[in-house]
Design brief:
The complex is a heterodimer of chains A (275) and B (179). Chain A is an alpha+beta fold. In chain A, 38% of the residues lie in helices and 28% in strands. In chain A, strand 6 and strand 7 form a beta hairpin. Chain B is mostly helical and 179 residues long. Chain B has 6 helices and no strands. Classes of the chains: A alpha+beta (275), B mainly alpha (179). The interface between A and B is medium-sized, with 30 and 34 residues.
């Protein structure tokens, strides 16, 4: 007993080592069967392993989702930039299409009329105050001269008032100092179209005796030698019979939307003057 | 008594955790032997009897769960504990480079025992098949040991206000850390 108390630690350690050695030597010779102890421990470990695995799996899934989201964000950024590029491209194509449409209209107008034209692009506008003019990118170098009529689809724009070598100023129909000889298409009644600024134009010198209605088309008369005959100016938007005076007060809505004008044609010569 | 009852359960938890973590990190290609580091930790903190029983149980549980020859890791962990215990009498657990070195020695000792056992019992050369796996396993354990020791140290300081080893560390007469 005394011996055991004195060497208790050493005896226990030696016993443990001995048990380990015996277990090992016994099991090394045996088939690796499932002994009772092994079964018990595996049985106890199974739920722990299951719980840990599901916890790890959920963390791993969350991580995978996060990684996927990071990937998605990057993909989204790439796609967004691609969408922006394509939108810019689409706008370019739409612009080209609209330009082609406008030019087609202009060309069809040119084909209808037997004149020589110079096509020009609008490069500036001055529509503040009384003056209503635009600047085009063609000048005397292209054969333009002051006074030449300017048209666009579907009718008259105005006439050239200043011409430099490579640019010209066009006085629009709605300029208050613009006067164009015109006729009412339906009744062939003649009058003078005067610009009224942002209000459009007015048809002057039409007697109260004449029949003019809203919606009547007004075309150039060809008198005056500037505008060829039959070009559309606009339509009658309002007819007022004043008590005083001899003439009707007729408002004209121009056929051209001057604020959206981008391309014009300048009539440089009559068809028979070509060459 | 509660300690000895809880020990197998804690051992099961540790081994399962170790296998799961290794499975997640290395996809089952490597074993991250946290249990070996725990054995060395135990050598620094528990008395001889309690420590040797704990390590035997831990090794036995490892054998059962990992499927190795029953008793192999029980013997290895007991031997590693005894070696670490006697070395720990001359070491301080806070010296992390020494802890890493001791873990490296213990891991090599473990591999040596496995090599000898398989050679003697089955005539199988366990080391020559995959020396890279063996080397990486030893290095990973050595690198992890200081980290685990430092975590354990912080844990002890947080709960007990001091480390278990800092008590009268004189052989078997050292203070027991109650888990």
């Amino acid at each position: 007993m005394f011996f055991f108390k004195n060497y208790k630690t050493i005896i226990i350690v030696a016993l443990i080592v001995l048990v380990a050695l015996l277990t090992l030597s016994y099991n090394a010779k045996q088939e690796r069967g499932a002994g009772f102890l092994r079964k018990t421990i595996l049985e106890a470990a199974a739920p722990v392993q299951g719980a840990l695995n599901s916890a790890v799996k959920s963390v791993s899934n969350a991580w995978q989702r996060y990684i996927r989201l990071v990937g998605l964000e990057k993909e989204n950024r790439i796609l967004q930039s691609r969408v922006n590029e394509l939108q810019a491209e689409l706008i370019l194509y739409q612009e080209s299409f609209l330009e082609a449409e406008r030019l087609k209209n202009l060309l069809s107008l040119q084909k209808e009329l037997n004149y020589t034209f110079v096509a020009a692009r609008v490069i500036g506008r001055e529509q503040a105050g009384l003056a209503k003019t635009i600047l085009i990118n063609k000048g005397s170098a292209h054969g333009l001269r002051e006074g030449m009529p300017v048209i666009a689809h579907p009718g008259v724009v105005g006439r050239l008032i200043q011409v430099t070598w490579h640019a010209s100023k066009v006085m629009l129909l709605i300029d208050e100092s613009s006067n164009v000889d015109a006729i009412v298409q339906r009744t062939r009644t003649q009058g003078i179209i005067r610009g009224a600024g942002s209000g459009g134009c007015v048809l002057k010198y039409i007697s109260k005796m004449h029949d003019v209605k809203n919606g009547d088309a007004i075309v150039t008369s060809g008198i005056g030698g500037i505008f060829p005959k039959g070009l559309l100016i606009g339509v009658v938007s309002n007819v007022a019979r004043q008590e005083a005076g001899l003439f009707l007060k007729i408002n004209i809505a121009p056929a051209i939307d001057f604020s959206r004008l981008e391309e014009v044609s300048v009539i440089v010569a009559a068809g028979d003057e070509k060459g | 008594m509660v300690y000895y009852l809880l020990m197998p359960l804690v051992s099961i938890l540790l081994i399962v955790l170790q296998i799961t973590i290794a499975d997640v990190i290395f996809s089952g290609r490597l074993v991250m032997e946290i249990s070996l580091i725990v054995v060395i930790c135990v050598a620094f903190r528990l008395d001889l009897v309690k420590g040797v029983i704990s390590c035997f149980v831990l090794g036995f549980v490892y054998d059962c769960i990992a499927g190795s020859v029953l008793g192999l890791f029980a013997l290895i962990y007991t031997v590693v504990f005894l070696v670490s215990f006697f070395i720990s009498l001359h070491l301080i657990a806070e010296e992390m480079h020494l802890v890493a070195l001791l873990t490296l020695l213990c891991a090599l000792l473990e591999e040596l025992i496995i090599f000898i056992f398989y050679n003697l019992a089955y005539g199988y050369n366990a080391g020559q098949n995959n020396p890279l796996t063996f080397l990486s396993r030893v290095l990973i354990v050595s690198a992890l040991a200081p980290l685990l020791f430092s975590v354990l140290h912080k844990f002890e300081v947080f709960f007990y206000g001091k480390t278990a080893q800092s008590a009268e560390r004189s052989g078997s007469g050292r203070a027991s850390a109650e888990i």
